[in-house]
C-alpha cells in the first residue's frame, strides 16, 4: 500500500511537465506475455519514457517483425532467439551493439548465466539481453511404460536400442515424433551431431563455413537418423503427425509411444493436455551417449532463452537499455519462475523451490548450468536462407525421399 | 457537342448501331479501371520488377538483371513444384468436372427436394478454407482421427497424409469438396438455360435419358464447361491454404506446389526477388492456360447464351 502510494505520487509529479515519449516493444505472443506485461507496467511507473508492449501471435511473429523492421514503423525493442534470427538485422546495421554496455554494467554482466549470454551473441558481440526462460531439449518418457517393461531411462545408445526393441515387440511406438511440423525432426539431428562429433562441427557451420556440412560426423548423424527410421523407432506414420495440434504429445500421454524428444515446454504442454499424466507418469532425462561419439554427454541443445534487442533507429536508446536492465532483477526472475519458466539469471537456483514443479525446474536448471555447451536450435542459429532448406532436406531424409549422402550434398550446395 | 455520342466501332470499322443502344460512355468504367489498376496491375508490375532484383525485405532491392530467371529455369525444385501444380490441377479438374456436371444437371430439375438438397450441397462453399483444412486434418490424423476407424474397412492405410500420393490426392480432394458446390451451381444455371423443346423433340424421336444427356445436355453446356474449367484451373494453380495447413509441402517436398514454393521462398527464406520470379511465372502459366482453353473451346465466339443452338 505504501509502495503504491509512493509510486502514484511519483507518477503525478513526474508526468505533469514533460512527455518522455514511447518505446514500442514487440514480443512473441503466448502465455508468458503476462510476465513481460507486468515488467512493463512496473517500469512505466518510474520512467518518463513509457514502454508499449505489442504482443504478436506466435505463428505471425517472425513475418510481422520482418516486415515491420523494413518499414518506418519498426519497434524500438523486440523479442528474438539470438544467433541467426537476428543476423539479417545485424547485417543491415539495424541493431544496437550492447557489448560495451553489458561489460560496463555489473547488473547485466553478472546477472545472467555466461553460456546463455554467449549463445545469443553473434561474432562475439552482444546484441541481446535474456528475457525468458530456458528451453533445453530433453528426452521425455512414460514412467509407467518403462516400469512395466523393466526398463530404465536410457543413458547409452545400447540402452536406447534395447528400449526400441522392447517397445516395438509390445506394439508400442518407441518415440513420438511430429514429423509433419519438420522442426521436431531437427532436434534429433542436433543431438546426434553433438554426441557424434561434438558442438564444434555445427559451430563451424553457424559461423558461415558451409563446408562444415561435409564433416564425416554430419553424415554419420544422418545415417543414424535413417537407421532409426528404418528400425521403426518413430513408428510408421510420423510424417502425418504434428506437434502443434497435439498429435505427438497425445501419443505419449495415451501410452501409444514410450518416449518423446522435445523442448522443455513439453512439460507445460502435457500439464495442459493431460495433467494427471504430467504429474504422475512423465519422466525426463538427458539425451543418451552415442557409441563412438566424441561429444560430451552433458552438452545440451535447444533454445538457451529469448532475448530483447534494441533497434538502432530508436530515439530512446538509454530508456530502452534501462528497461532491458530490469530483466536481470530478482523480481522479474521470480515472476518467470511462478509462470513455470526457469530464468537464465545467475541467482535463479535459489528461487526454483517455488516453481510449480520444483524437481523438473531444478533438473532443468542443473542440466543447463552443467552443460559445457548449449547449442542454439539450428533453425534459429542459421539465417532463414539456410534454415528453410535445412528443414526441407531433413524432412526428405526422415520421409525416406533422400539418402544421408543426398542430405549432406544438398546442404553443402545451399547458397 | 454537348452530349456524348458513343462512337463504338467493331473490328471491321463499321458502326454497329444496334450494339450502341443504351450503352454508357467509357468514362463510367473509370472507377472500375482505377480500382483494378491500384489493386491488381500496380502490384503485378511491382512483382515483375522485383523478379529482376535481389531483395531480403530489409534493405532496398538491388537489381540483378536476369539472375532470378536463369536460376528459375535451372532449379529442380521449381520444376518439381511446377509439375506438382499441373498434376494437382489435372486431378482436381478430372475429379470435380464430372461430379459437378452431373450434380448441376440433376439440380436443375424443379422438384422441391432438389432445392433443399442443393442448398445442403452448397454448405462447404460457405466454410472458410482454413476451417475445412483443419477439419480434414483432424479426421485424417493417423493415430486418433476417424480414418483409423473407417480406413481399414476399405483397405486404406490411415497414414494417408504421410504418403506422397495420399497427401497430394487428399489436397485435391479437400479442395474439390469445398469448390464443387460452386461449379455445381454454374452447371445448374447452364442446364436451366437449355430450352425444354429440345428434350421434348428428342423424346418424340425416342431418345432415352442417356442419349438426351450426351446429345443435348452436354453439347449445350460446352461453354459452361469452359467457364467452369477456366475457374477450376486458375483456382487449382493458385492452391495454397490447404497445402499450408494440411501438409506444409510434405512429406519431404511431395506437395510443394508452386504457390507454396513461392511462400516458402518469400516468407520463410526471405528471398523475395526469387519468390517474385516464381509468382510471375505462375501468372504467365495461368494466363496462358486459360487463354488456350478459351481459344480452343470457341468460348470467345460466344455472343449469346443461345449460341450454338
Please name the defining characteristics of this protein.
heterodimer; A: 415 residues; alpha/beta; six-stranded mixed beta sheet; five-stranded mixed beta sheet; 11 strands; globular; B: 309 residues; mainly alpha; two-stranded antiparallel ribbon; 14 helices; disordered N terminus
Description:
The complex is a heterodimer of chains A (about 425) and B (about 300). Chain A has 21 helices and eleven strands. In chain A, the strands form two sheets. In chain A, strands 5, 6, 7, 8, 9 and 11 form a six-stranded mixed sheet that branches. A five-stranded mixed sheet of chain A has the order 2-1-3-10-4. Chain A has about 425 residues and is an alpha/beta fold. Helices cover about 50% and strands about 15% of the residues of chain A. The radius of gyration of chain A is 22 Å and the shape is globular. In chain B, α2 packs across α14 (about 270-295), α3 (about 65-75) crosses α14 (about 270-295) and α4 (about 75-105) packs parallel to α8 (about 165-190). Chain B is about 65% helix and about 0% strand. The longest helix of chain B has about 30 residues, at about 75-105. A two-stranded antiparallel ribbon of chain B has the order 1-2. Chain B is mostly helical. In chain B, a hairpin with a 7-residue loop joins β1 and β2 (about 60-65). The chains are: A alpha/beta (about 425), B mainly alpha (about 300). Chains A and B meet through α3, α13 and α20 of A and loops of B.
Amino acid at each position: 500500500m505504501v509502495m503504491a502510494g509512493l509510486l502514484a505520487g511519483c507518477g503525478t509529479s513526474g508526468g505533469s511537465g514533460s512527455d518522455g515519449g514511447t518505446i514500442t516493444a514487440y514480443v512473441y505472443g503466448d502465455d508468458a506475455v503476462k510476465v513481460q506485461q507486468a515488467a512493463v507496467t512496473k517500469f512505466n511507473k518510474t520512467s518518463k519514457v513509457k514502454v508499449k508492449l505489442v504482443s504478436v501471435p506466435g505463428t505471425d511473429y517472425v513475418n510481422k517483425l520482418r516486415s515491420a523492421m523494413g518499414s518506418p514503423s519498426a519497434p524500438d525493442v523486440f523479442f528474438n532467439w539470438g544467433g541467426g534470427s537476428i543476423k539479417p538485422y545485424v547485417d543491415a546495421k539495424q541493431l544496437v551493439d550492447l557489448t560495451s554496455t553489458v561489460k560496463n554494467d555489473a547488473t547485466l554482466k553478472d546477472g545472467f548465466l555466461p553460456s546463455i549470454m554467449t549463445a545469443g551473441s553473434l561474432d562475439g558481440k552482444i546484441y541481446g539481453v535474456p528475457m525468458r526462460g530456458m528451453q533445453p531439449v530433453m528426452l521425455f518418457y512414460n514412467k509407467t511404460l518403462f516400469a512395466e517393461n523393466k526398463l530404465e531411462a536410457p543413458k547409452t545408445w545400447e540402452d536406447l536400442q534395447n528400449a526400441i526393441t522392447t517397445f516395438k515387440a509390445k506394439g508400442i511406438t518407441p518415440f513420438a515424433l511430429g514429423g509433419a511440423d519438420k522442426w521436431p525432426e531437427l532436434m534429433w539431428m542436433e543431438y546426434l551431431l553433438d554426441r557424434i562429433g561434438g558442438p564444434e562441427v555445427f559451430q563451424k557451420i553457424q559461423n558461415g563455413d558451409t563446408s562444415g556440412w561435409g564433416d564425416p560426423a554430419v553424415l554419420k548423424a544422418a545415417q543414424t537418423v535413417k537407421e532409426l527410421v528404418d528400425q521403426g523407432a518413430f513408428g510408421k506414420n510420423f510424417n502425418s503427425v504434428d506437434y502443434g495440434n497435439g498429435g505427438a504429445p497425445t501419443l505419449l500421454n495415451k501410452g501409444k509411444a514410450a518416449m518423446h524428444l522435445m523442448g522443455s515446454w513439453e512439460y507445460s504442454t502435457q500439464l495442459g493436455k493431460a495433467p494427471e499424466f504430467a504429474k504422475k507418469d512423465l519422466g525426463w532425462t538427458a539425451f543418451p551417449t552415442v557409441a563412438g561419439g566424441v561429444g560430451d554427454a552433458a552438452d545440451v541443445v535447444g533454445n538457451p532463452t529469448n532475448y530483447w534487442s534494441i533497434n538502432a533507429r530508436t530515439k530512446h536508446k538509454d530508456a530502452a537499455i534501462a528497461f532491458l536492465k530490469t530483466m536481470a532483477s530478482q523480481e522479474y526472475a521470480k515472476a518467470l519462475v511462478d509462470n513455470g519458466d526457469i530464468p537464465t539469471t545467475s541467482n535463479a537456483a535459489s528461487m526454483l523451490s517455488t516453481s510449480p514443479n520444483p524437481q523438473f525446474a531444478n533438473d532443468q536448471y542443473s542440466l543447463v548450468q552443467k552443460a559445457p555447451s548449449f547449442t542454439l536450435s539450428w533453425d534459429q542459429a542459421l539465417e532463414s536462407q539456410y534454415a528453410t532448406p535445412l528443414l526441407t532436406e531433413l524432412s526428405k531424409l526422415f520421409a525416406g525421399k533422400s539418402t544421408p549422402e543426398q542430405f549432406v550434398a544438398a546442404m553443402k550446395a545451399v547458397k | 457537342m454537348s452530349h456524348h455520342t458513343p462512337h463504338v466501332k467493331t473490328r471491321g470499322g463499321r458502326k454497329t448501331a444496334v450494339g450502341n443502344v443504351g450503352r454508357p460512355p467509357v468514362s463510367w468504367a473509370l472507377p472500375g479501371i482505377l480500382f483494378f489498376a491500384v489493386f491488381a496491375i500496380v502490384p503485378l508490375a511491382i512483382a515483375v520488377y522485383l523478379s529482376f532484383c535481389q531483395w531480403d525485405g530489409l534493405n532496398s532491392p538491388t537489381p540483378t538483371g536476369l539472375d532470378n530467371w536463369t536460376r528459375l529455369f535451372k532449379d529442380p525444385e521449381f520444376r518439381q513444384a511446377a509439375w506438382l501444380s499441373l498434376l494437382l490441377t489435372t486431378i482436381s479438374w478430372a475429379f470435380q468436372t464430372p461430379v459437378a456436371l452431373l450434380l448441376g444437371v440433376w439440380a436443375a430439375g424443379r422438384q422441391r427436394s432438389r432445392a433443399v438438397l442443393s442448398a445442403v450441397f452448397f454448405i462447404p462453399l460457405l466454410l472458410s478454407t482454413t476451417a475445412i483444412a483443419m477439419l480434414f486434418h483432424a479426421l485424417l490424423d493417423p493415430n486418433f482421427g476417424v480414418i483409423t476407424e473407417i480406413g481399414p474397412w476399405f483397405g486404406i492405410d490411415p497414414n494417408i497424409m504421410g504418403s506422397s500420393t495420399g497427401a497430394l490426392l487428399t489436397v485435391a480432394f479437400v479442395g474439390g469438396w469445398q469448390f464443387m458446390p460452386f461449379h455445381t451451381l454454374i452447371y445448374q444455371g447452364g442446364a436451366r438455360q437449355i430450352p425444354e423443346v429440345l428434350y421434348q423433340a428428342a423424346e418424340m424421336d425416342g431418345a432415352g435419358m442417356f442419349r438426351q444427356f450426351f446429345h443435348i445436355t452436354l453439347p449445350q453446356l460446352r461453354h459452361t464447361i469452359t467457364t467452369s474449367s477456366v475457374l477450376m484451373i486458375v483456382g487449382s494453380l493458385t492452391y495454397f491454404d490447404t497445402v499450408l495447413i494440411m501438409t506444409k509441402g510434405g512429406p519431404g517436398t511431395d506437395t510443394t506446389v508452386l504457390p507454396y514454393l513461392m511462400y516458402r521462398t518469400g516468407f520463410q527464406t526471405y528471398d523475395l526477388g526469387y519468390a517474385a520470379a516464381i509468382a510471375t511465372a505462375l501468372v504467365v502459366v495461368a494466363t496462358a492456360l486459360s487463354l488456350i482453353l478459351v481459344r480452343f473451346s470457341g468460348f470467345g465466339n460466344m455472343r449469346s447464351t443461345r449460341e450454338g443452338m
